[in-house]
């Protein structure tokens, strides 16, 4: 076995199998494990997926939400052990692969139409 095959086999062990199919425009709730002292707790982070990158073990999603009037974006490594679960709340109907234009919008202009042809 060469080194690339070894790397692929190690990465295949780390991939999560219980993840839903996530698309750009979806509203998701990501459960993030946070360590406080010796214990871990799960903190939910809810927002709209504005970007997806890469594939395989390096797949990431960028989730945007508005918190106290300020837009906050977090990038999550989907297969990370820090991610406890990902739940899709609603599907969005968008025509772009990246929704960076939402950064310039405020209030009702940031709404995304709901898509009903894909299951949650």
Automatic annotation (TrEMBL):
Domain of life: Bacteria
GO CC term, one of those recorded: ribosome
Entry keyword set: Ribonucleoprotein, Ribosomal protein
One Pfam family it belongs to: Ribosomal_L19
Gene3D superfamilies: 2.30.30.790
Stated role: This protein is located at the 30S-50S ribosomal subunit interface and may play a role in the structure and function of the aminoacyl-tRNA binding site.
HAMAP family in UniProt: Ribosomal_bL19
Family: Belongs to the bacterial ribosomal protein bL19 family.
PANTHER family per the UniProt record, alphabetical: LARGE RIBOSOMAL SUBUNIT PROTEIN BL19M, RIBOSOMAL PROTEIN L19
Name listed for the protein in its UniProt record: Large ribosomal subunit protein bL19
Organism this protein belongs to: Brasilonema bromeliae SPC951
Organism taxonomic ancestry: Bacteria, Bacillati, Cyanobacteriota, Cyanophyceae, Nostocales
């Amino acid at each position: 076995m060469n080194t690339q095959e070894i790397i692929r086999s190690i990465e295949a062990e780390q991939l999560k199998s219980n993840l839903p199919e996530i698309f750009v425009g979806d509203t998701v709730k990501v459960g993030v494990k946070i360590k406080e002292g010796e214990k871990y707790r799960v903190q939910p982070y809810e927002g709209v997926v504005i970007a997806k990158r890469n594939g395989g073990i390096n797949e990431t999603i960028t989730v945007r939400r508005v918190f106290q009037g300020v837009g906050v974006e977090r990038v999550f490594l989907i297969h990370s052990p820090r991610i406890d679960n990902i739940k899709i709340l609603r599907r969005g109907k968008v025509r772009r692969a990246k929704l960076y234009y939402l950064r310039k919008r405020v209030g009702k202009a940031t709404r995304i139409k709901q898509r009903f042809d894909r299951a949650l």
